[in-house]
Design brief:
With 443 residues, this protein is an alpha/beta fold. The protein has helices at 23-31, 80-90, 102-112, 128-143, 195-212, 240-248, 301-308, 321-336, 339-359, 388-400, 425-442, and strands spanning 49-53, 56-59, 64-67, 121-125, 147-151, 179-182, 217-223, 252-256, 281-284, 295-299, 364-370, 373-378, 403-404, 406-408, 414-417. InterPro entries: Aminotrans_3 (IPR005814), Aminotrans_3_PPA_site (IPR049704), PyrdxlP-dep_Trfase (IPR015424), PyrdxlP-dep_Trfase_major (IPR015421), PyrdxlP-dep_Trfase_small (IPR015422).
Length: 443
């Protein structure tokens, strides 16, 4: 029997328990059947949102919520500079990249300027799924091999190709025969071994298995903060030995920066930079346009060339001027408003406060994170085992207190705290206050 998806089903509304909903909410959930059964809603009591501003959301009744989950609106919901840039460009021209347009070229150069010089080409798409799909194709052509190594609870998208690289979708979604998994880099797994050496050893075993199966290794595809695995960012630098190993084996490294990129980790603009590595391919998505569909594949020219020089690529909406206007505004706001520094400062203080809270509560396990990407582990107080039930009860109690978040990790027991980058000290204090109160209620 197929297991439920950790990223889609763990914190989701189940129609069979709709009897407790208000008549208006129940009516909307009934109407959603027109979308088909694959869709999911958050929370046992779904929220009807109608407006957002900064790190705050508002429902149909005017109630305000603190958003501690939505990294898509990276520079805040309804950011006025993004709205203005999109409106201005939409009123002028929107077309595709088979015509010349300076804004597309200006943005591409600007984005690449934030990355190592070796990454000197950019292809624009609409979604992170598309970017990862293209990256895998590029890697396989560049190396002449098929094998891809990913982490055990990875999520890299929902195209036909990358859904086979996304075990977080659940066992109903099969993995490709040329995919191999490595465990999440949890320091508790490794005994006295150094984490970088341990993780490289896991990767080496899968390289050997791929080679024995005749696939060879094309790429290590990794989200540099291991967000779906439960948020494992530290120690900074532990990825470097595995990256060297993959390169020595003739493979390339794809850094999926959809979630840890654009200053979210605070210390660096890109998650991979915390590890002191230069990937061959970098993918971006959701936060790039603050909700406007735009994504990117940054590449070393020598890695991209075998694919791009032989197979034309065209994406009708990828890199259109309106989406690029949004992306440029996002980049400008992050820099000019100091949002990376804010993520570092606010996130570091919040991490310390959450760890202090955990020191006095045996239901909190590890608290992990970097910048404004934090994972709060919820465990059984009797034996320290992951407690999905308690984690979901906590998520629901926070929702009742108008603080929105969700869970991740193979055990579905890690609260994923990744608010918009405009999240400030007042927001962090509110989160801590409501979390403390929610834990007291559940005690």
């Amino acid at each position: 029997m197929a297991t439920r998806s950790t990223i889609m089903d763990t914190n989701s509304f189940r129609p069979e328990v709709a009897h407790h909903l208000s008549p208006a909410t129940r009516a909307l959930t009934e109407r959603r059947k027109i979308l088909g059964p694959a869709y999911r809603l958050f929370y046992r009591d779904p929220i009807h949102l109608v407006r957002g501003q900064g790190a705050h959301l508002y429902d149909a009744d005017g109630a305000e919520y603190l958003d501690v989950y939505n990294n898509v609106a990276s520079v805040g919901h309804a950011n006025p500079r993004v709205v203005e840039a999109v409106t201005r460009q939409m009123s002028t021209l929107n077309t595709h990249t088979r015509y010349l347009h300076e804004a597309v070229l200006d943005y591409s150069a600007d984005l690449l300027s934030t990355m190592p010089a070796e990454l000197d080409r950019l292809m624009l798409l609409c979604t992170g799924s598309e970017a990862n799909d293209l990256a895998v194709r590029v890697a396989q052509v560049a190396t002449g091999r098929q094998g891809i190594i990913i982490s055990a609870e990875a999520y890299h998208g929902n195209t036909a190709l990358v859904s086979q690289l996304s075990p977080a979708l659940g066992t109903a979604q099969g993995l490709a025969p040329w995919v191999r998994l490595v465990p999440e880099p949890d320091p508790r797994r490794i005994g006295g071994e150094e984490l970088g050496a341990w993780f490289a050893r896991q990767v080496a075993a899968q390289i050997a298995d791929l080679e024995a199966a005749g696939h060879g290794v094309a790429a290590l595809l990794v989200d540099s903060i291991f967000s779906s695995d439960g948020v494992f960012p530290d120690p900074a630098g532990f990825l470097a030995p595995a990256v060297d190993l993959v390169h020595d084996a003739g493979g390339v490294v794809i850094s999926d920066e959809v979630q840890p990129g654009f200053g979210r980790t605070g210390a660096e603009f890109w998650g991979f930079a915390r590890h002191g590595v230069v990937p061959d391919l970098v993918t971006t998505g959701k936060p790039m346009g603050n909700g406007i569909p735009v994504s990117g594949l940054a590449a070393r020219h020598e890695t991209l060339a075998p694919f791009a020089e032989n197979l034309p690529y065209f994406n009708t909406f990828g890199g259109n001027p309106v989406s690029v206007a949004a992306a440029q505004a996002v980049l400008d706001v992050i820099r000019e408003d100091g949002l990376q520094l804010r993520a570092d400062r606010v996130g570091s203080a919040l991490l310390a406060d959450l760890r202090a809270l955990g020191a006095g509560d045996d239901r909190i396990g590890q608290v992990r994170g970097s910048g404004l990407y934090l994972g709060l582990e919820i465990v059984d107080p009797d034996d320290g085992a992951p407690s999905r039930t308690l984690a979901l009860d906590l998520v629901e109690e926070l929702r009742a207190r108008r603080v929105l978040t969700s869970v991740c990790g193979g055990g579905g027991n890690v609260l994923k705290l990744r608010p918009p980058l405009v999240f400030d000290d007042v927001d962090a204090a509110r989160l801590l206050e409501e979390l403390t109160a929610a834990l007291a209620v559940l005690r």
